[in-house]
Design a protein that fits this description.
By secondary structure, the protein is mostly beta strands. It is built from one helix and 15 strands, in the order ββββββββββββββαβ. Strands 1, 2, 3, 4, 7, 8, 12, 13, 14 and 15 form a ten-stranded mixed sheet that branches.
């Protein structure tokens, strides 16, 4: 049986364990759009792992360090939309090397990647949560220890199943 992460109303299930998570401030969306703050419904795959080598040991042999100039393009009209880019970069982007710990580990999904459709949403990652009860801009966010645990277990191609849930309660811890 193939491993997969599955979003449930009370967190993500993986190998019989439930991980509390935060989702996008826009809830779940079957018609994800850039800037809507929603987490997309669907079957995504983990296609990359990035980490801050200056803050933690390599979580897996396939993880790639995040450098000071690493960015992610979120400009729908740019040819590099929803792709990693390097600074300097003039179009709208997200900095991957952040001052906070949210992107100390980033699990990159194949949402609208690598063949990006302009405006369909960018940078749908699994990353560390900011704090309990704080939603994301569309990603799925985990407690640090849970994200490290997952990063050590998953492999490229691990699926992330996000069903069209009627409600999402989020973590209580």
């Amino acid at each position: 049986m193939r491993d997969y992460l599955r979003l449930t109303p009370s967190g993500v299930l993986f190998r019989g364990r439930r991980y509390p998570v935060q989702i996008g401030r826009g809830g779940l969306a079957q018609d994800k759009r850039e800037g809507d703050g929603a987490t997309p419904v669907g079957r995504l795959r983990i296609v990359g792992m990035l980490y801050r080598a200056d803050r933690l040991p390599r979580p897996s042999d396939w993880a790639r360090p995040i450098g000071p100039g690493d960015l992610w393009c979120d400009a729908p009209g740019h040819p590099a939309y929803n792709h990693p880019v390097r600074a300097p970069f003039g179009a709208s982007h997200e900095r991957l090397r952040r001052s906070d710990p949210q992107y100390d580990i980033v699990l990159v999904t194949d949402w609208n990647y690598p063949r990006a459709v302009p405006g369909r949403g960018s940078a749908i990652f699994l990353h560390q949560r900011r704090r309990l009860g704080h939603p994301t801009a569309g990603c799925i966010a985990f407690r640090r220890r849970d994200l490290i645990d997952l990063a050590r277990q998953i492999r490229p191609g691990t699926e992330v199943l996000i069903p069209p849930l009627a409600s999402f309660r989020g973590p209580r811890r």
